[in-house]
Design a protein that fits this description.
Structural class: alpha+beta
Shape: globular
GO cellular component, one term: cytoplasm
Keywords: 4Fe-4S, Electron transport, Iron, Iron-sulfur, Metal-binding, Repeat, Transport
GO molecular function, one term: metal ion binding
Domain 4Fe-4S ferredoxin-type: 1-29, 31-64
Protein name: Ferredoxin
Radius of gyration: 12 Å
Strand content: 5-15%
CATH architecture: 2-Layer Sandwich
Length: 83
C-alpha cells in the first residue's frame, strides 16, 4: 500500500525531506503523497520514514492503493533503476 496524509496534517514540513523517493510534496492545503512513487520506504528502510517523524500521526496506509511488499519492492526497483 502507499501511504496517505490525512487532513490532520499541520504542515510542519518534517515528512517531505525524509522521503527517499520524493513522493511527498506540498498540496493545496496539506502535504500529499504520490502513490506512484510511495514504496512505504521498502528498499530503503525497515519502516516508513514519514510515519516515524510525523508529530501528529496523520500518515496511515492508503486503502485505495493496496500493494504487497513484493509489489512495493518492484516499484522501488523501477524507481531506482539506472538509465
Amino acid at each position: 500500500m502507499a501511504l496517505i496524509i490525512t487532513d490532520e496534517c499541520i504542515n510542519c514540513d518534517v515528512c517531505e525531506p525524509e522521503c527517499p523517493n520524493g513522493a511527498i510534496s506540498q498540496g493545496d492545503e496539506i502535504y500529499v503523497i504520490d502513490p506512484d512513487s510511495c514504496t512505504e520506504c521498502v528498499g530503503h528502510f525497515d519502516e516508513p520514514q514519514c510515519q516515524q517523524v510525523c508529530p501528529v500521526d496523520c500518515i496511515p496506509l492508503d486503502p485505495e492503493h493496496v500493494e504487497t511488499k513484493e509489489q512495493l519492492m518492484e516499484k522501488f526497483l523501477k524507481l531506482t533503476a539506472q538509465s
